[in-house]
């Protein structure tokens, strides 16, 4: 299979595949597998050898039902499959993504306070300036690994949001890429990743101390000044939430950018649509999010007996919403396996709508919009320079490598 040919076969699977098996996602596109399972039932009982089973939600309607009912499906018992119970317990009700109502809303309010009009304007300037710099440098090189190119914009934006000075951003880019790997947790060398993560946490500690002395318009200042339930946040709570922002803010946009380029390379007619001067690129950004769905799943735990698509879900059952499967549901999306740069409406769930809707959703859309505005304005349709290597991960739908050849646009 070449880069420009979409996979036409499902990953090897038995009649009862384990959707949490990372190897399913290394070899190609699992859309046929999801479609086959969804046709049987929009909610699939996933059994695992020597591990606790879970319910896999594969359809759009049921995905929204889970994501929008935090009273029944909670996050505080873990947000992803295969998390260590000790790590979940340490972060529960401290880190935003593993905090349930009513505390969740109070913690989110503290973090939202950082998004002042001046900060948003500054972030948008950072997005445009960084995108043009990154793309121009990649065009000068010609051949490049686009995963590395795509990594630089989200790191710059999340550093700006946190209040990391420009001089420290190369350090954060290096440490972030090492800590999280090209494709999220599990892809990097574990010892090197652990050291890099320690370096990042130590940096948060120094930055938090600095912001107590020298407040600014950024998330770290909001966290060190904020109170929840009448008390200041602990250092641990500050570091955990900085860590969540860095991880989530980098992975979603980085892999959506790489996957978006691959989609446009495989659908060259859509590149021509997107490069028009009057093209609504934000529409294409939303389609990139739907089509790539970088966050593979989000986990919830039922706290009372209920039903999903007629299936009995018991209190204590784990329920994993498979976001890319819901985003290919033909009941909601016409011709769902086709990339459509002008798709509208586009009710995708890539950013997990509901109580835990991505805090940086607007920034993710802005980053994709600006990046592809600048790329289509500056470059001809990129060409493959090798085969893409997908991540072996059930958490991040992304790439370890995407070799491409870039050429400056003529005329």
Measure the end-to-end span.
33 Å
Order of helices and strands: HEEHEHHHEHHHHEEHHHEEEEHHEEEE
The major β-sheet equals: 5 strands, mixed
Percent in helix: 40-55%
Structural class: alpha+beta
Give the tally of β-strands: 14
Q: Look at the structure and give the mean pLDDT.
A: 90
How do the helices and strands line up, and which of them pair or pack?
Blueprint: H1 31-40, E1 43-48, E2 51-57, H2 60-67, E3 73-74, H3 85-91, H4 103-112, H5 117-141, E4 143-145, H6 146-162, H7 169-180, H8 190-213, H9 219-225, E5 227-228, E6 231-232, H10 235-266, H11 268-274, H12 281-292, E7 297-302, E8 306-308, E9 311-313, E10 318-322, H13 323-326, H14 361-378, E11 383-384, E12 389-390, E13 399-401, E14 403-405
Parallel strand pairs: 2-10
Antiparallel strand pairs: 1-2, 3-7, 4-14, 5-6, 7-10, 8-9, 11-14, 12-13
Helix pairs in contact: 5-6, 5-14, 6-7, 6-10, 7-8, 8-9, 8-10, 10-12, 10-14, 12-14
Overview of this structure, please?
- The chain starts with 30 loop residues before the first helix and ends in a 6-residue tail after the last strand.
- It has 14 helices and 14 strands.
- The strands form 5 sheets. The chain has a 5-stranded mixed beta sheet.
- Helix 5 packs parallel to helix 14 (361-378), helix 6 crosses helix 7 and helix 12 (281-292) crosses helix 14 (361-378).
- The chain has one domain: Cytochrome P450 (Cytochrome p450), CATH 1.10.630.10.
- It has 411 residues and is an alpha+beta fold.
Tell me briefly what this model is.
By secondary structure, the protein is an alpha+beta fold. The protein is built from 14 helices and 14 strands.
């Amino acid at each position: 299979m070449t880069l420009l040919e979409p996979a036409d076969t499902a990953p090897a699977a038995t009649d009862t595949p384990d959707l949490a098996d990372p190897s399913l996602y290394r070899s190609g596109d699992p859309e046929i597998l999801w479609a086959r399972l969804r046709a049987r039932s929009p909610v699939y009982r996933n059994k695992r050898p020597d591990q606790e089973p879970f319910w896999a939600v594969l359809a759009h309607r049921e995905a929204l039902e889970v994501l929008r009912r935090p009273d029944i499906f909670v996050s505080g018992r873990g947000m992803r499959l295969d998390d260590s119970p000790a790590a979940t317990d340490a972060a529960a009700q401290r880190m935003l993504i593993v905090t349930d109502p009513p505390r969740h809303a109070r913690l989110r309010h503290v973090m939202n306070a950082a998004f002042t009009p001046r900060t948003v304007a500054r972030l948008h300037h950072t997005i445009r300036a960084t995108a043009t710099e990154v793309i121009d440098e990649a065009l000068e090189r010609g051949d490049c690994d686009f995963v590395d190119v795509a990594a630089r914009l989200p790191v710059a934006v999340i550093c700006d949001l946190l209040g990391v000075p420009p001089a420290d951003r190369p350090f954060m880019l290096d440490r972030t890429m090492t800590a999280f790997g090209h494709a999220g947790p599990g892809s990097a060398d574990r010892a090197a990743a652990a050291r890099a993560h320690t370096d990042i946490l130590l940096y948060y500690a120094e930055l938090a101390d600095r912001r107590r002395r020298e407040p600014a318009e950024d998330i770290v200042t909001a966290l060190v000044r904020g109170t929840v339930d009448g008390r200041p946040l602990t250092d641990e709570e500050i570091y955990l939430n900085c860590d969540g922002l860095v991880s989530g803010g980098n992975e979603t946009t980085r892999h959506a950018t790489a996957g978006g380029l691959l989609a446009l390379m495989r659908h060259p007619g859509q590149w021509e649509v997107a490069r028009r001067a009057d093209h609504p690129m934000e529409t294409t950004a939303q389609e990139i999010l739907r089509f790539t769905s970088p966050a593979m799943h989000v986990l919830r735990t039922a706290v009372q007996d209920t039903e999903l698509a007629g299936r009995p879900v018991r209190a204590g059952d784990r329920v994993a919403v498979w976001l890319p499967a819901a985003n290919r549901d033909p009941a909601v999306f016409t011709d769902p396996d086709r990339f459509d740069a002008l798709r509208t409406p586009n009710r995708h769930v890539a950013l997990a709508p509901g109580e835990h809707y991505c805090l940086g959703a607007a920034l993710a859309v802005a980053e994709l919009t600006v990046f592809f505005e600048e790329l289509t304005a500056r470059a001809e349709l990129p060409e493959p320079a090798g085969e893409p290597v997908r991540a072996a991960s059930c958490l991040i739908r992304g790439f370890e490598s995407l070799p491409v050849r870039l050429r400056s646009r003529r005329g």
